[in-house]
Amino acid sequence: MSQLIEVKVPDIGDFHDVPVIDICVRVGDAVKIDDPLVTLESDKATMDVPSSASGVVREIRVALGDKVSQGRVVVVLDGDTAAAASGTAAAAQSESLASPAAAPAATVVEPVRVASPAPAVPAAPLVAAPAAPALPSGSRTHASPSVRLFARELGVDLTKVPASGAKGRILKEDVSAYVKGVLTTPQVRAAEAPALGGGLDLLPWPKVDYAKFGPVEVRPLARIRKISAQNLARNWVMIPAVTYHEDADITDLEAFRVEVNRENEKSGLKITMLAFLIKACAVALRKFPEFNSSLDGDDLILKQYCHIAFAADTPQGLVVPVIRDADRKSVGELARETGQLAAKARDGKLTPGEMTGACFTISSVGGIGGTSFSPIINAPEVAILGVSKSLIKPVWNGREFAPRLILPLSLTADHRVIDGAAATRFNVYLAQLLADLRRVLL
Question: pTM of the full predicted structure?
Answer without folding.
Answer: 0.59
